[in-house]
Predict the 3D structure of the following.
Amino acid sequence: MKRNLYLKTTPVEEALAKYMEALQQAGALQPQTEVIDVCDSLGRRTAGPVFARCCSPLFNASAMDGIAVRAADTKGADESRPKRLKLDLDYKIVDTGDPIKAPFDAVIMAEDVVEIDEETVEIRASVPGWNHVRPIGEDIAVGEMILQTGHMIRPVDIGVLLASGNLQVEVCRKPRVGILPTGTEIIKPSAMPKEGDIIDSNSGMFAAMVEEAGGVPERLDIVEDDYEKIKETVLRQLKTQDMVLINAGSSAGTEDYTVHVLREIGQVIIHGVAMKPGKPVILAIAGGKPVIGLPGYPVSAWLAFENFATPVLRALGGDTAVAAAAAVSTAVGSAAGTAARPPVSATGSRTVQAVISRRIVSSLKHREYVRVKIGKVGDKLVAAPLARGAGAAMSLVRADGFCVIPQNSEGCEAGEAVEVCLYKDLEEIENTLVSIGSHDLILDLIGDRMAAGNGGFHMSSTHVGSMGGLMALQRRETTIAPTHLLNEADGVYNTAILRQMFPEGTMALIKGVDRMQGIMVKKGNPLGIKGIEDLIRVRYVNRQRGAGTRVLLDYMLKQAGIRPEDIDGYEKEAATHMAVAALVASDEIDAGMGVQSAASAMGLDFIEVGPEEYDFAIYREDLKLPQVQAFLEILKSREFHEKLKEMGGYGWRQAGHIELI
């Protein structure tokens, strides 16, 4: 056999990019999937988006130990005029988590109640409706996306999956990897070596590295330097394994057969990489599967595995972001670092400085851990606080990290620098598109498609209402601000408020979707609700102040001559369309304004009140950002439009069009 002299070696980043591209085109990076019990899913990656099958909480629940009361009965109570309530008639005793049922609609903490006798208590302050009550669906609503494609499942995710009614989950199967040591001089570690023998230490190292990268290794028997035996073994392994690693035989010796075997049974993409040590690497495809020839020297073998086998294994295990990053790595260090660096621990071992996007008020009594979403806006990291309640498990799933508010501190102001302990890799956060503003279900879909795409981009979405998002944009604490604010003067959405709030010539509006707003009611519309004028006779739930849906409601109430105080529940607020839908589906609320897709997701009836334009405000200079370009590509894609059609209630005639303001 002649020598395998390779006169040209390929730069590491180019070699990896070419190999990943060839594997993609050959369909050799497509993860296999399986359905497993949620309790067995730790460390596995989701094969697709996972949606909630039930609400959490399942019912309106007490958030405190105390007494359940009718809020209306407490009006006028104060220190000078306390009110007395009778057990069962005016109140009932509840513990944290107990159901709150009509006619009771509020909870007073036990420490705020004065016991007069076994059946009588005294209160010295009035409480609003829903005081210390966790409404149905507050944390998780049916149909809500709780995990995105390619998400590595953590202990907190398992809790949320179970709480949302998911007992099983479809995950990417751990890739099976055959490890084939070759060489006549190679012996097993258990054998007694003699002169000229080399102990096979690499196979054990490779097996551990395969497990560390999320695969299942199978160490094969040593095959001597025999062309036909090597070929036969590789062909046999390709029938059962997802990937094959061949150790030794990749260099220029007369008995180095690996490259010749792979050229015969498959396609050699790269032979020889500009890396020292580690030059004699073979990157090939055979039987529609990746096959990598690794050098025999241990240090060379380790470097080659880190730079090439690890990103392929991570991709086969469903980590599309790592695979994409590896494909465009620009240096040996970045390739190895992106692919193989261990994840940041959940204890927050990595800390960064970030700007808090919203004021946080904290008690002087406690040290508080506030979960946050992190993204890079301009040259600074921005931390957006998430739900702070002890029962808000989804805030742990959504969080990128947390900031600690020390004891004896009253909190921090918006725009203040805080220290954040990260859960996620900083590179992933820096590739995240920050979105703060109005809520819509399409944000989850776009974020999922960004995470599953080949650009390695992600999306951080925080829901504070249209006006809250535009104010964050003013402070340069978000890249895009979803908005649907109607100008009453001309009936046009979004442009007037942008001209009012921002300097001329600085802003753009990315056109999003036309969506149908309406009144969500129970299936069959048992109360016969036909329009806005009927809200004065039902129990209503509103959106928060500054939300575009609430602005639209106020506009329509004004047109109809209806006072907000005439609506039972006008002051009751929910943060998202799905939260409104979950409440309407409960026994305590009859109607709420929202979008058609949320009503459909919860199986509710929907009374149309009119279309609106849901768009994305952005500074013109940020349109060129790669994550914004990926966002625009999804907005314009046929796959996205097909999903909108399936959800119902959306139009996409201008999706992705850019309007300069």
Confidence is low (pLDDT under 50) at residues 326-349.
